[in-house]
Amino acid sequence: MPEALDAIFVKQYVRMEDKKEGEKILSKIVDQMVDSLLNVTWMTQETRDTSIKKIKESVYKIGFPDFMVNDTYLDSLYSLVNISNDDYFGNVINLNKVSRRRMNNLIKNMGSRSAWSYHVYDPQVEYINVWQELIATAAILQSPLFDYEGPDYYNFGAIGTLLARNLIHAVDEYGGSYKLDGSNLGLWWDEDTTSRYLNVQQCAVDAQRNERAGPYVISGKTYWINISSSAESNAAEMLADASGLRMSYKAYKLVEKEKGREILPAGIHKYTADQLFFVAYAQVYCQSAPDVVLLAQHLLDKYPLKNKINLAMSHVPEFHSAFKCQAGQRMHVNTPCTLF
């Protein structure tokens, strides 16, 4: 019965303003996603229309479910729980009965899309294709990823890009491999879209051909890892990162147009708001780890966080403009690889 712990977390660490501001950001991301799909060239009209329909009909869950702040409802969930100070075995039996009743209710309501698959104190952002829903838990709506009183370039650069890149998985090669009713694996892209996508995918594969990770110094020895062997399996992630970054940036610029340019805090005037958007994005994946851990991540075929920053941004024209990266420089590729 995890609802009580979820509710305690919400009441002690989450502000209602966090949820409301998160919903506003997500709404802007969804709108930008639809606009991006309207202009995508590698999808046929039929696949494009289906993608837009899927985005519009998806369920969006951010922060926490409303019942988390409803004490009456929460009390009803635990009304049948009887705990005794001197009967441990009996307590286990009673809790098992309540848990079984709860699971039976879930089975009876398998068609319901209101259930949350994660605890709200578990920091998660994910698009779940089986249920066609995007979920962002309350734990993700906090510093250093989000602050409802923070500037828009900060929130859209951090949490906005996380929402955008995961929403892309609703319609990319991951989302395209699930039937629209969520019942089973089954491609819903048409043949022309699948064929055109191969060119987009190949662009992402080629972009990783010369990528190396390292140097990692372990026990006095230096190691370099060639990650090109994983280029094809990582192509979808690279495309989602770069495309999600662009999508969130465009959403941010629309908000800036509506609200006006933000006043920068004292002490960081050497950067522009646009540059700080990308700094906020980079901070999402910033990590400090010993070389042995980083090497192990590569050997386990985990997509390098360095690539989620440098490689993704090098394929975003808006990043080139913000930092005045010139053609031929490492952070400015001549042929960007993005979905939109």
From TrEMBL:
GO terms for molecular function: metal ion binding; metalloendopeptidase activity. Residues 133-338 form the Peptidase M13 C-terminal domain. InterPro entries: MetalloPept_cat_dom_sf, Peptidase_M13, Peptidase_M13_C, Peptidase_M13_dom_2, Peptidase_M13_N. Residues 1-65 form the Peptidase M13 N-terminal domain. It comes from the Eukaryota. Keywords: Hydrolase, Metal-binding, Metalloprotease, Protease, Zinc. It holds the Pfam family Peptidase_M13_N. GO terms for cellular component: plasma membrane. This is Uncharacterized protein. It comes from Lymnaea stagnalis (Great pond snail). Coiled coil: none annotated. The keyword Transferase does not apply. One of its GO terms (biological process) is protein processing. Its cofactor is Zn(2+). Belongs to the peptidase M13 family.
